[in-house]
């Protein structure tokens, strides 16, 4: 189930998605340092409580007067952090559809 910004931090939205049959939650957020730390804790708990694989994409760098904190990540259905980028690099985080494995790829070069 897709979730953007406000939906992504709503436990009700995730519960509704699971009730509708979702096994994967794809969240797009725009978080600073404090917000992304909260999001990491939120998504770990959400994945544990709903047995839901989660992938979160966050912005990095300066935009609209805010410094976004990166750290895009994935969690397995047990709440375990499977892969994460750091707060500086741009990249791609991939989650296997079974929700048990993931990998982070940093973009390098110009």
Question: Can you tell me the residue ranges where pLDDT is under 50 for at least 5 consecutive residues?
Answer: none
Biggest sheet features = 5 strands, mixed
Determine the strand fraction and express it as a percent band.
35-45%
Number of helices: 2
Question: Percent of residues in helical segments?
Answer: 10-25%
Q: Roughly what is the average pLDDT, rounded to an integer?
A: 91
Element-level helix/strand string:
EHEHEEEEEEE
* Strand order in the largest sheet: 1-2-3-6-7
- The computed structural class is alpha/beta
Number of strands: 9
Can you offer a commentary on this structure?
By secondary structure, the chain is an alpha/beta fold. It is 25% helix and 36% strand. The protein is built from two helices and nine strands, in the order E-H-E-H-E-E-E-E-E-E-E. The protein has helices at residues 11-19, 33-50, and strands spanning 2-4, 24-29, 53-58, 60-63, 66-69, 73-75, 81-84, 91-95, 102-106. The strands form three sheets. A five-stranded mixed sheet has the order 1-2-3-6-7, with helices on one face. The longest helix has 18 residues, at 33-50. The termini are far apart. The mean pLDDT is 91.
């Amino acid at each position: 189930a897709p979730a953007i910004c406000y939906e992504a931090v709503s436990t009700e939205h995730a519960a509704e998605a699971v009730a509708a049959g979702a096994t994967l939650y794809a969240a797009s957020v725009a978080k600073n340092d404090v917000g992304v730390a909260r999001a990491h804790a939120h998504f770990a708990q959400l994945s544990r409580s709903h047995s839901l694989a989660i992938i979160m994409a966050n912005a990095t760098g300066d935009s609209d007067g805010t410094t976004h904190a990166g750290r895009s990540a994935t969690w397995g259905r047990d709440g375990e952090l499977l892969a994460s980028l750091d707060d500086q690099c741009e990249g791609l985080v991939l989650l296997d559809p079974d929700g048990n494995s993931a990998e982070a790829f940093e973009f390098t070069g110009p």
